[in-house]
Every structure is written in structure tokens, then in C-alpha cells.
Amino acid sequence: MTGVLITGGTGKTGSALAELLRRSGVPVRVASRIPAADAPDAVRFDWRDPATHPAALHGMDRVYLVPPVDTTDPMPLVEPFLAEADRLGVRQVVLLGSAIVLPGAASALELAARVRARPGWVVLRPSGFMQNFLAPHPLGERIRRRGEIRTAAGTGRVGWIDARDIAAVAAVLLTGPYGHPDDRRDYLLTGPKALNYQDAAQIITLHTGRPVRVVPVGFAEQADAYRASGMPDAFAAALAAVDVGIRTGRDAQVSTAVLDLTGRPPRTFAEFVQDHAPQWADVGTPED
């Protein structure tokens, strides 16, 4: 094994994966748009600048692939990177996909299909991140500042998963033999239980002492809130549509993949809240 390139290396799953691999003595290269000057394993990488791709990939035989964020059309940006990975002989790619598919995001499905088609390349499809309940995500920021969750999801449930558990699965796949004994190319990753936003609010309140309420809203109001946080219009509308879609129960799936691959169960939402309790400290309730 020569090393693992981690795109999105300073993000939620990428940073946790880098730490796990370093602890195991695995050579890593952490790719980001603004690499830390004092980090010897950091490299500049920009999806919109293909000239940064060869240097990031050079000498790496495995890749943890986090597609560009805030877009429903990642394939045009990722395709040149995958072509370069093929040219340089990358033998394994673990793609961070999603169990929650954005409306109108056929490109994301195309990307997942492209990865599945290669021997030893794997797609991870995690459910909603527990880390979304923390700032600076708009959901977490509103909880921190106003003690409320505004949602169009009704009482629909999601199999929320801790990003650290996603990283643990990726670490297993990236440090084991190429491919997996069951020859699977796709893993649904969830927490141990599907929860709705009312459940989450109760758990945060119980374990932090910070009262959190749920405020029902419609699609338009949710999309406006995402736009106000700085998201592009199309991406904000897609996320709001996902929120509405949760009502149908389609995202209430629960899998055993984390346990099957890592040998330990995924963290519960209560454990996640206890680990991050200080981050929900009341900072006041400024006007909207």
C-alpha cells in the first residue's frame, strides 16, 4: 500500500478518517482548497482546477472521494479527476455518496454508478449526518442561537449517523484487501435507530438542559432559510425538497453495515449529544 488521498480532507468525515489512518500508520495525503501550511501531508486541491489533481493523486493507490458540496451536478467536476485516477493507476476509490438523494441530482447517481462499475471501488451511502445538528450547519446554528428546529419533515424519521462512524467504515475498507470478501460495491450506513426531529429535540434538551422546540414550516420557508444561510438557489431548493420528502418515511431506513464492517455498533444520537453538549450553549435569541 502506498497511501490514501483524502479529498475533503478537512471536512466532517475526511478529518476523522485522516486521524484514524494516521493512528494506524497508514500514509495519508489530505486534500483541500486551502491546505494548512504546517501540515506535511496536506496538498492543495480544487475540484474546479484540474491542474491540482495530478499532484494530489501522485503516488497514492487509494482515494477517499468526497464530491464537491453545494451542487446537484457533481459529475462534470469529478469526471476529470476519475480519469486522472485511472491514468495514474489508482486501485481503490471509496466514494462518499448519500442515502438521501437530492431531487434533480441525476449526476450524483451517475457518479455512484461510475464508481460501482470498477472492481474494488465502493460507494458509501450514509443517511443524514448527526453533525448537521451542530453549527455552522444552518440546522445546528438555529438550535444554538434560537433553541429551535424549523422543518418541513413533519414527524418523518431519518437514520441519523455520526460522521465518525462513516470514517470508521471508510478506514476499514481503505486498509483491507482491495475489494471486500462479499464483493459488495455499495453500503447503506445509518445509526442504530431512525429518529424524527421531535425525538432529536427531546434528546438534546434532556442531555444538555437546553430547551429545543420543533417549529413546522413549509417548503418555501425552508428553502428561503437555506438561501439566507448562503446556499445557491438550486441547492437550497433541493435540500428543502429533501426535508419535505422525509415525511413519506423513505429515509427511515436502518442498516447493520457499521457493525458488520467495524465490529462495533454505530453511536446513538444520545451519545453524540453527550459528546458535543457544550456546543448547544445558549448564546441568546437574536431577531430573524
From TrEMBL:
Stretches of the chain forming a coiled coil according to its record: none
Record-linked InterPro entries: Ergot_Alk_Oxidoreductase, NAD(P)-bd_dom_sf
Domain of life: Bacteria
Protein name, entry field: NAD(P)-dependent oxidoreductase
